[in-house]
Amino acid sequence: MRFTIDEQFLTDCFAEIVGTPSPVGYYVQLNPVLERYAARFGHTVTYDNKSTAYITLEGEDNSKTVLVGAHADTVGMMVRRIDPDGAIRVRMLGGINYNSIEGETVTVHTRDGRAYTGLMTCQAHSVHVFDECRTLERSDNTMMILLDADVHSKADVNALGIRNGDFVSVEPRCQLTENGYLKSRFIDDKAAIACVFTMLKYLSEHQLRPKYRTILAFPYSEEINFGGTYVPEGVSEYVAMDIGLIGPDYDGNEYKVSICAKDASAPYDYELTNRLIGYAEKAGCDYAVDVFYRYGTDGNAAVRAGNNLRAAAFGMAVYCSHGMERTHITGLRNTVNLLLAYVLDI
User: Using CA atoms, how far apart are residues 149 and 86, in angstroms rounded to an integer?
Assistant: First the structure.
């Protein structure tokens, strides 16, 4: 059974969510957006003490509770030092790829709510000036932010309200081509969030309930490996919606939904992964099963934390993870179809 989903809503929702900054641990801007989308379909958002957002859907059978997680955090940075000339030095939040963001616009978010844009560059910033411009390793120690402001000293930067510990987000540059390619930073994992809300829209419009009580979770620390470590009481299954990878070892591509059988730490639950494969086939999804390297999800983080549950993972496959990523609307469609098949247990 194929589900007919609202693809315009899916892409519009993604564009808004990806345009809302949420580097690791910075939830103040995105949580109100999640609340608004939840309210659109008659739901409220609750939070734990880590500011993870939850939406709880009552099921046809509430004897079992499952959780679907789509992490709300993205890779980003934090101010660690302001140089005497006013350049800003940072530490990464999550596994950011500095080679990908060199030359990009970034935004510094102050603790009192102000925001300032700047240019992310290497200290050896010009081939006309520095012999090592092409060869210097891009790292925390060589990258810096040049504010788009008339600043020439640390005091000038401090006068703007910028201090060590301020969060830094990266311009996503979201673009959807006429033939369906989605190019943007942070498809990981904001496309999964858009898939979740597209699923909610389908349930609302068709007056459907999930088979079991279903908790939708949006944590802000997946990129630093512990977003799923806390799980609400009673959850027996944790299905992490996260990106699939594309590479020589993998069968996945931009048009498929990828089901992860194993990540860098451990295999996912045998029975639950088998069920996802069965749901994908029943829903007519084009899918791949892959084993991912240098990869993890909140699902296995929940298992490692000692929670008594099964875990599995699936999502749209992307090129250039943690950089300027690319997938296709067909992959998103397959992902929403698998999600609907899972929550409805068809």
Answer: 10
Residue 336 shares a structural domain with residue 223: yes
> Is 222 designated active site?
yes
Q: How many CB atoms lie within 10 A of CB 127?
A: 9
Note whether residue 1 is domain-resident. no
Tens of pLDDT along 190-217?
999 999 999 999 999 999 999 999 999 9
| Inside any domain, residue 181 | no
- The catalytically annotated residue of 35, 132, 222, 223 is 222
Tokens of 123: 């200290």
The answer to whether residues 34 and 156 belong to one domain is no
Q: Which domain holds residue 18?
A: 7-74+186-344
**287 belongs to a structural domain:** yes
pTM greater than 0.85 (yes/no): yes
